[in-house]
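Now read the record:
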Amino acid sequence: MIMGMAELDKSAEFDYTSVELTDRLLQCAQHCLPYFSNQVKSTAFCEYICLKVLPHYHLLPELPDMDTKAQLIKILAELTANLGSLEQAPQCAKNVFERLIDYMPLPPAEEDGSLAETPNLEFTKVECLMFTFHCIGKQSEEFLKEDEE
């Protein structure tokens, strides 16, 4: 019902260039968060964001007076707290993992072993992505075992 009200079609691609659609997605997700629980799962909304929005994460438009990317990741983390069984868990895990890698800093060591400058860590984004990956990773053991390197 919420997906229909937000006009988010699971079969169509997300128009990541649309400021209106991005704003609608964030607003609807924010307003429906209190209604999700152990009995009312957020699976459809979460899967939509993981499969349709996260692949275009860096191309999302910035909304006025809001860090669009940070808001999206925070909402996704909150949605995964009441997650049911995902249909495409490995693909969801892959998309979240790729975004997590984007924000993980490299070790602050130079080639000679000395310490370089402290890396810039966007802690809120990393924490939300790690929580999301943890929740989705429980459903996708094959993703975790796939690449042993």
